[in-house]
Amino acid sequence: RIVYLNGAFLPFEEAKVPVMDRGFLFADGIYEVSAVLDGRLVDNAAHLARLDRSLGEIGIRNPHSLDEWERLETELVARNGLAEGLVYMQVTRGVYERDFGFPPADTAPTVVMFTQAKTVAANPLAERGAKVITVEDIRWKRRDIKSVALLAQVLAKQAAVAAGVSEAWMVEDGAVTEGSSSTAFIVTQDRRLVTRPLSTALLPGITRAAVLRLAAEADLVVEERLFSVEEARAAQEAFYTSASSFVMPVVEIDGAAVGDGRPGPLGRRLRALYIEMARAG
Ligand code: PLP
């Protein structure tokens, strides 16, 4: 397995980051994840645009142009012979003596990339449907930044693991914000596709944007608004989206069945449309 670290492609065992890296000490960095299908990156330009924005929001200069990023990712995918899975990218504020304030402006950011093989299209969970639990959203107020500070999401996902389900939907003031690593959607009885509007309160999901563009093809009217846990439980269908799960039908929320307890036709249709789009490049 080959990983990319600061300009070099190295065997996994040889890629090491110093103890004084600010990513390690302060979670002072951001990340991005793109899917790979048929050996090709999915919707990668949008992921790189979000990476650039995340860096800008925390004052780290982007070490690469978008073209350079894509070339590096493509080379990493090729070197690993990856047909299907994920590319993970992380940039931190670099290595410097520990101090809360930023290091000198010429400190080089640390850039790490690795791949993970994973079945993303023919995922059996999408056939069965995922179960979710709800947990309180205890995160900070800039959730639009794809920060590597993920402790709240780690705890949320572990609560899901402990409950034997696939994802945790985080809830604030009675409304679902998003999943621990996904965007939450419901479909109402009158064919409305409902998801929370973008703000600093949630991550602007790249898969979310793609699914909203595909909604009309599934005869759905998009409604960007908050929805409550009660509304989600009573919805016709529910699903979540992410680069690694595409469109994942939700069949149970906190132990109660959604619809008839099986993946619904509209979620399935959106999943098929998304995979078609991803394969078409
Ligand atoms: N929301 C959160 C909190 C996430 O961590 C993720 C992905 O990791 C998403 C939403 C989905 O974003 P995307 O579709 O860009 O993968």
* The CATH homology group name of the largest domain: D-amino Acid Aminotransferase, subunit A, domain 2
Quick one: CATH class of the largest domain? Alpha Beta
Can you count the beta strands?
Answer: 15
**Shape, per Cα inertia axes:** globular
Q: Ligands in the structure?
A: pyridoxal-5'-phosphate
Q: What's the order of the H and E elements?
A: EEHEEHHEEHEHEEEEHEHEEEH
Function: Acts on leucine, isoleucine and valine.
InterPro entries: Aminotrans_IV, Aminotransferase-like, BCAT-like_C, BCAT-like_N, Class-IV_PLP-Dep_Aminotrnsfr
Family: Belongs to the class-IV pyridoxal-phosphate-dependent aminotransferase family.
EC number: 2.6.1.42
